[in-house]
Amino acid sequence: xxxxxxxxxxxxxxxxxxxxxxxxxxxxxxxxxxxxxxxxxxxxxxxxxxxxxxxxxxxxxxxxxxxxxxxxxxxxxxxxxxxxxxxxxxxxxxxxxxxxxxxxxxxxxxxxxxxxxxxxxxxxxxxxxxxxxxxxxxxxxxxxxxxxxxxxxxxxxxxxxxxxxxxxxxxxxxxxxxxxxxxxxxxxx
Length: 189
Prior knowledge:
The protein is an alpha/beta fold. It has helices at residues 2-15, 38-48, 60-69, 87-93, 133-138, 168-181, and strands spanning 24-30, 50-56, 78-80. A three-stranded parallel sheet has the order 2-1-3. Strand 1 (24-30), helix 2 (38-48) and strand 2 (50-56) form a beta-alpha-beta unit. It is elongated.
């Protein structure tokens, strides 16, 4: 991830038409939960004569909406944090410039979801539900093993999910239920 972030940020610097006398400011719009270590940021800044400014912009969906709404007067030089759940919105809005990063050679083809390379895949993960082991043990309640289990009365009001309109994990969970239960079956879930 560090190398990919460096490549993405380096590309944004390369797009700059004129090099300022002092460090160039590079604004990176991202979701609120994004974090890069100070060591990584400082190393990048030093290697590229840049000052990186992070613009936390809400959940992934809210941040992407801000980027789309401001595309004619961008708030940032780089956007970090679009996942496959919001990919179609970003591509339809045409807010990114194509860039075939050398890092794509290390990305399996199945994860290269945009043939124009307007986004660079950096990682992937599963849709999972976290639970409080102590609560289930104290209440002598078995941990649900399937989505259908969550419909049982003993699990009522125990699940909280993020808003799928603004949260990429929330949307990923919704899409997982659609895949599992089908359409319109997921609506009963």
